[in-house]
Structure formats: C-alpha cells, structure tokens
Design brief:
Blueprint lengths: L8 H6 L5 H6 L7 E5 L7 H6 L3 E6 L2 H4 L6 E5 L11 E6 L3 H4 L1 H11 E10 L3 H6 L3 E5 L2 E11 L2 E10 L2 E10 L3 H11 L1 E6 L6 E6 L13
Parallel strand pairs: 1-2, 1-4, 2-3, 4-5
Antiparallel strand pairs: 5-11, 6-7, 7-8, 8-9, 10-11
The structure holds S-adenosylmethionine (SAM).
Length: about 220
C-alpha cells in the first residue's frame, strides 16, 4: 500500500522512531496537547500518546492512519488546507514536509498552535542536503538508500529506496533546502518565530507563535 505522496505504508509502520518522541517530549510540558501533521503510521504520535500527551494525528492516507493507536485521535485530511478550528500547545511536522511546501505547512502550523505554543518541524539538515552525497543507513529493519541525489540552487532532488525483508519501494523526494535564515523568513511570514535547532543532526527546528489571529475575529474595521 502506498500513500498519495509515495510513502510506502509498510515501511513507515516498520521504521523505528529513534528517540524523536522522547526528544520532543523533553521540550514540552507533561500535559501539553499535540497535533502532528503528516503523522503517517504514528511512530511519533503513538509514542507521544504513550508518554501521556493528548495527541491528534492528521494524514491524507487512511491506510497510514489505520496504524495509529486507539489513544490518538485520527483525522484524515490534507494538511495544507487543514483548519480544525482548534489550537494545540504543540504542533509537530516531521519527515521533511516543510521542505516541500514551506509556506503552506507553516501556515497550517500557525493556524493550529496556541498563542504561547510551540511548533517543531523537521527539515533536511542543510549541510547534508547541500552535499547531496549518495548514501544509505539502516533504520531498524529498513535499509534507506538515497541514490541518486543532487542539489542545485538549494533544491534537493533524490530517489529514496527502502528495503524491508525481500521487498523494495522507491520514493521521489524533492524540496528546497531551508537553512536557519530561510526557515526564519518563512516562519515570520506565517506568524511564527525561529527559536533554534533542538537536535544534534540540525534537522528539528523550534518555532514559537508571534501573532495569533482569533478565528472569531471580524478582520478589523474595514
Ligand atoms: C514520509 S511519511 C512520514 C510519516 C511520519 N511523519 C513518520 O515520520 O513516520 C509522510 C506522511 O505524510 C503524509 N502526507 C504527505 N503530504 C500530505 C498532505 N498534503 N496532507 C496530509 N498528509 C500528507 C503522507 O500520507 C505520509 O503518511
């Protein structure tokens, strides 16, 4: 089964979370509510729920959502157009979705985070993306290979091959390299503020809200 964006469901149900939920949990208050956009099979969402958070996961693939634990509220939908009319203490977007369409992803984050909330987005590590070196890594039972891979004018293009047991899947990957300055610029347009990088791989970025427009606002006097 393949999600509309080309992500193989079996692969994302098998990939380990490799400490990401615990890292994010360490940045939150114990009772923070969490919204994960593009949650896939829930390797982060399920673990954050197990750590005590109230978690909502959004994905456009019902086959991915079928893997969420009962403790996670599942919402099938397009994250770019999403408007749940609810806000969360924390919004999480992994899997480099921000590199695909930063303005739409960050606007969706801003629409759903509370005024004193936090957004965590995972971007391509800028140095890794710019170097664009073919390579592979074993992640739990899945071998993930980036080949070919190229970066021109800060746009990364790659083919990812996932090997799991005797099966293989390929997924095309394309997106803009977002270094701290670029992500700060996009964040600021969305009403968010760049607040640093939280991991040693230079992937996970913390953003905070700068302005929240009330959904009930009349839009001013004009
Ligand atoms: C590479 S998978 C990763 C899933 C999860 N973040 C993880 O790390 O395991 C990307 C997920 O984002 C979802 N996705 C991509 N574009 C989306 C969109 N526009 N709206 C909703 N879901 C989307 C896909 O269906 C897929 O489940």
């Amino acid at each position: 089964m393949i999600a509309p964006d080309g992500s193989p469901v079996e692969v994302f149900a098998a990939l380990p979370a490799r400490g990401v939920p615990e890292m994010l949990h360490g940045q939150m208050l114990a009772d923070d509510s969490v919204l994960e956009l593009g949650c896939g099979a829930g390797r982060v969402a399920n673990a954050l729920a197990a750590l005590g958070h109230t978690v909502t996961g959004v994905d456009e693939s019902p086959e991915m959502l079928a893997h969420l634990s009962k403790a996670v509220e599942a919402v099938e939908g397009d994250i770019y157009a999403l408007d749940l009319r609810r806000r969360f203490d924390v919004v999480v977007v992994g899997s480099y979705l921000v590199n695909m369409w930063a303005p739409l992803v960050l606007a969706a984050c801003a629409r759903h985070v509370t005024a004193d909330g936090v957004v965590f987005v995972q971007r391509f590590a800028p140095a890794w993306a710019r170097a664009a070196e073919v390579g592979e890594a074993q992640s739990g039972p899945v071998l993930v290979r980036f080949d070919p891979m190229s970066c021109s004018n800060d746009r990364l293009t790659a083919t990812v091959t996932y090997s799991l047991g005797t099966q293989q899947w390929q997924q095309s990957l394309e997106g803009a390299v977002l270094d701290d300055a670029a992500i700060a610029r996009h964040a600021s347009i969305a009403g968010l503020k760049f607040d640093g990088v939280i991991d040693a791989y230079d992937e996970w970025v913390r953003l905070v809200a700068t302005a929240v427009v009330s959904p009930t606002s009349s839009g001013g006097r004009w």
